[in-house]
């Protein structure tokens, strides 16, 4: 299969026993396989998004089930795999997916996202793979991953997994809420990078950008508020409050309080203070996934090229 093969549509060919749904374990196994093969080929790839959070919180799978993070797409838990790689290894990543793995490349566009984003389809149409290079650019608040992918062997660092979700202002969804709750439940808040939500890293990063800080802290407060009123609002987000013991609720809220306190205590830059005077009266975030900034790469367009 040549590296020039592209596709406008891919038909799904699932084993009959799957009953039209790709099992979660298949996503887990394929993510690990891709990362290991990339390493063999001299490229660095790390998972991100909901799959990355699930992989890094595997010991808390029972808690994830309590949250009810299922049925997101076609009645299955996940619809795609998200990776981050380095721009300097772009050609290696392309060859990995097309030549070594037999994936089919999404037709490229002339959009600004084309050079830093690659989309591939599983050879049998099981799912698609979204690969970002260097940065999370299609975001309310872009995140730079350069120099950070080696901090974990499987996913982007835990702190970045959390920030990736909390940077959303326009489209923070039920599944994003649950992903954040799972990640916070499964990891300590500490001044450490390995297997922890690094409060120092997050506080320093947000101290440079008032808008990013406002979005993250607002979302953290929303999550805390939901946990505190879980009996009342749980059903609205598909959470059965009766399954959550008081210790779990206390742990989640105390971790959020600690992170918020650390963010507040970090000295802020001059530009942060200057922008804070304007506040939310002026838009403080970038718009996400519009035809103007992603061209034909928008995920909303996948319904046309990756039919169910």
Structure description:
The chain is an alpha/beta fold and 308 residues long. The chain has one domain (6-303): Beta Polymerase, domain 2 (2-Layer Sandwich), CATH 3.30.460. The protein has helices at 24-40, 49-56, 61-67, 90-100, 158-166, 174-186, 199-206, 210-228, 230-233, 246-265, 270-276, 291-294, 302-305, and strands spanning 6-7, 45-47, 80-85, 104-106, 117-121, 128-133, 135-136, 143-144, 188-190, 196-198. The strands form 3 sheets. Strands 1-4-5-6-3-2 form a 6-stranded mixed beta sheet. It has a two-stranded antiparallel ribbon with strand order 7-8. β7 (135-136) and β8 (143-144) form a beta hairpin. The longest helix is centred in the last third of the chain and has 20 residues, at 246-265. The protein is globular. The two termini are 25 Å apart.
Summed up:
This protein has 13 helices and 10 strands. Strand 5 and strand 6 form a beta hairpin. The protein is globular.
Helix/strand layout:
Blueprint (H helix, E strand, L loop, with lengths): L5 E2 L16 H17 L4 E3 L1 H8 L4 H7 L12 E6 L4 H11 L3 E3 L10 E5 L6 E6 L1 E2 L6 E2 L13 H9 L7 H13 L1 E3 L5 E3 H8 L3 H19 L1 H4 L12 H20 L4 H7 L14 H4 L7 H4 L3
Parallel strand pairs: 1-4, 3-6, 9-10
Antiparallel strand pairs: 2-3, 4-5, 5-6, 7-8
Helix pairs in contact: 2-5, 2-6, 5-6, 7-10, 8-10
